[in-house]
Design goal:
This protein has 103 residues and is an alpha+beta fold. The protein has four helices and five strands. The chain starts with a strand and ends with a helix.
Amino acid sequence: MSIIEAPSGTGQMKHWASLRGCNVSQRAIRFVTNHHGGEEIEYGEGMIAWRVVDLAWCSPCQDAARLLKNEADNADITPEDYNERIEWQLLERRETNRANRNS
């Protein structure tokens, strides 16, 4: 998981790069093809470390991270693994939709 800056705004908040993040995180999502021909998710530009330390979290991102942690705890896996599962499910749905359109 990474932390990103908003492409606009005051620049005084940090945002969680996740499918569960705020509007800034959602707008930063890009689907790219990796060197194996598969699709991956990228989340905009990462934030440099000294800025991460100095800035407060965006409230919706903070709430989303708390919710994801609770869901991961209920699934008895780490938040990182739970977040990865969510990403893989989205990528699988996109692949299925592409296959259905092409058939």
